[in-house]
UniProtKB/TrEMBL annotation:
This is nitrile hydratase. SUPFAM superfamilies: Nitrile hydratase alpha chain. One of its GO terms (molecular function) is nitrile hydratase activity. Fe(3+) binds at residues 107, 110-112. The gene is nthA. Belongs to the nitrile hydratase subunit alpha family. It comes from Mesorhizobium sp. WSM2240. Its EC number is 4.2.1.84. InterPro entries: CN_Hdrase_a/SCN_Hdrase_g_sf, CN_Hdrtase_a/SCN_Hdrlase_g, CN_Hdrtase_asu/SCN_Hdrlase_gsu, Nitrile_hydratase_asu.
Length: 205
């Protein structure tokens, strides 16, 4: 049976994107959502919020020991003091990488994620393979992201939930003494704040 026509097929989308597209279509047809409003929300989190907020938090923690201590003990308040509050950022905990311990964040149940500091979650963060493997084989997950840690480094996996979301504070790169917070923030990537990456080295930023 011939199938030569030029209309658009959703089957080029991955399963998650196809389900989202189908749900959006139904809700739009029923008049329950405004596509323009959805686009505005997505654009806000992609271009105006995003991981740049989190990078400012990390840079300040690197530069200000008092702020770092506050971030350790009350991350929600410390982050809010920089103006980063809102949806899915109400209950935060910061986990600090050390020379001995590396932290990795996952949401094993769904896709809980701190939007106010990291923006929208990447597709891989929501995927079942990542959610399963991060718990079973975190070192293997890190290898897939190009991160190789010494065998003696402990890897601690944090399971994000609707009640508590995590921000990883990566180790400050060497050779950045005296840098401004703005310069330091350029070294902090989204993946470093999830734990699937490291802060950039100065020459790589």
């Amino acid at each position: 049976m011939s199938h030569d026509h030029d209309h658009h097929h959703d089957n080029e989308l991955d399963p998650m994107a196809a389900r989202v597209r189908a749900l959006e279509t139904i809700l739009t047809q029923k008049g329950l959502i405004d596509p323009a409003a959805i686009d505005a929300i997505v654009e806000t989190y992609e271009t105006k919020i995003g991981p740049r907020n989190g990078s400012k938090v990390v840079a300040k923690a690197w530069s200000d020991p008092a702020y770092a201590e506050w971030l350790k003990t009350d991350a929600t308040a410390a982050i809010a003091s920089l103006g980063f509050t809102g949806r899915q950022g109400e209950h935060m905990q910061a986990v600090f990488n050390t020379a001995d311990t590396h932290n990795l964040v996952v949401c094993t149940l769904c896709s809980c994620y701190p939007w106010s500091v990291l923006g929208l979650p990447p597709v891989w963060y929501k995927s079942p393979p990542y959610r399963a493997k991060a718990v079973i084989d975190p070192r293997g997950v890190l290898a897939e992201f190009g991160v190789s840690l010494p065998v003696e480094t402990k890897i601690r996996v944090w399971d994000s939930t609707a009640e508590l979301r995590y921000l990883v504070v990566p180790l400050r790169p060497k050779g950045t003494e005296g840098w401004s917070e703005e310069g330091l923030a350029e070294l902090v990537t989204r993946d470093a704040m999830i734990g699937t990456g490291l802060a950039l080295e100065p020459q790589a930023s």
